[in-house]
Amino acid sequence: MTLLRPSTKLTHTGALLVLAAAEEAARAMGVPQCIAVVDEGCNLLAFLRMDGARVLSIESATRKAMTAAVTGTPTGGIAPDKALLLAEATSGRMTNLLGGVPLVAGGQVVGGIGVGSGTGEQDLEVAQAAVAAFMRAQEQP
Amino acid sequence: MTLLRPSTKLTHTGALLVLAAAEEAARAMGVPQCIAVVDEGCNLLAFLRMDGARVLSIESATRKAMTAAVTGTPTGGIAPDKALLLAEATSGRMTNLLGGVPLVAGGQVVGGIGVGSGTGEQDLEVAQAAVAAFMRAQEQP
Amino acid sequence: MTLLRPSTKLTHTGALLVLAAAEEAARAMGVPQCIAVVDEGCNLLAFLRMDGARVLSIESATRKAMTAAVTGTPTGGIAPDKALLLAEATSGRMTNLLGGVPLVAGGQVVGGIGVGSGTGEQDLEVAQAAVAAFMRAQEQP
Amino acid sequence: MTLLRPSTKLTHTGALLVLAAAEEAARAMGVPQCIAVVDEGCNLLAFLRMDGARVLSIESATRKAMTAAVTGTPTGGIAPDKALLLAEATSGRMTNLLGGVPLVAGGQVVGGIGVGSGTGEQDLEVAQAAVAAFMRAQEQP
């Protein structure tokens, strides 16, 4: 009987690296953003609301991160009618808005990043830049 | 390092002026309304439910004000499918219903007004009348 | 008629400085913490959950920050019976747990920091260390 | 069979009179307040948050008004242990914090005012001043 299994968890140091990379990308783009990083249990690890970003995006950015962390794929790919059913059934936490991307290490999803306050495309671009920085950092010795 | 930044806040006197102008416009139109004014942080500043206005519009009018305050544009301009996703992802607080208009001073969004209980067009007309009064009051010495 | 009033807002750069100082103090103490920074409108600006910190402290740390931001004083000074009434009347957001301290600049409360996951005394010590760093940073040219 | 019964409702004009009287009393006292007026159905009629009043008191002031409207007596008179049970059983809406006073006309409770952001005694004093103004206005021809 297998009672236990090994797991890999994102550290807060890793979360801060992702947050900083997202902030840098948003600054370069000139669009202030809300940036959230959650772990595989959908619990918040790190968050930043940049000057001028929308306060209502605090919640939506966090939910994008949650959705990416549980699905293992970027947000936005669900059929529109199913997306609303999923949102309703999860009290709004599963969202199909663009801007959520999973954080993967060693083939395992260890969390997600969610970005919100720009257009969906801008949000996604910032999230992707942060994920790219996270992948590069994993390759460093 | 920039720890602080100057900002402008709407006073409660300003909020009452907006509320009174909206009430007058609604009375002139003969349509009782719920009228909400929030600041830039989406916190309620002033509210009035006129005799005969719908009690379920207390919440929707307030959310229209919030949405206008965070987006800096009148509510109603979002594509229908995205509007529902945004509503879900913000626990219903971001709404695409007509009747929310931002309050702007010196080029900065300082809050929003939301009006609800009439048709969307009536709600918007009342909100616009209130914003016009707010702009006129700023020009007075 | 005074429609507007000048105000000072905490930047996200300032919030990150506070967050980093709190993390450093918590690390020096050997106690992982949840650390939240909110602005004067009680909206989240920055957050970090350190490795090993309690996930249920995500919410309580944030509420400590909110309480300090609205009262302008460290949390924990309210009489026990009144503290419970205030918690109930604010849906749990106003808390008397130790670990919330206001962030002040130029005599104005610009936000609050809340720390949670250790003992109340440890939480408060970390919050105070972060506030001290924030005050020192303001004095630098 | 008596299917219907006559009732008296507070108008929004009456609610604004109460709001203005409370604001004046708070200003004279030098303590900014959140002021809420609800009808006998606990639905918000009018609200004002004065400059500098606590954003977390938006909710608690409203709940004080609700509690006074349903009990027909000023808040604060319930035994402490029962007060917490009532708060829990009403999701925090029934509160024993000082500062809620019923609005009565012709022997019937037509609503309540709730004031919050000062000490409990200050909140109550402002609410009582507003109720006194409401009683005086009823006596005028």
UniProtKB/TrEMBL annotation, chains A, B, C, D:
Pfam families attached to this UniProt entry: HbpS-like
InterPro entries, per database record: GlcG_carb_metab_protein (IPR052517), PduO/GlcC-like (IPR005624), PduO/GlcC-like_sf (IPR038084)
Organism taxonomic ancestry: Bacteria, Pseudomonadati, Pseudomonadota, Alphaproteobacteria, Hyphomicrobiales
Protein's UniProt name: Heme-binding protein
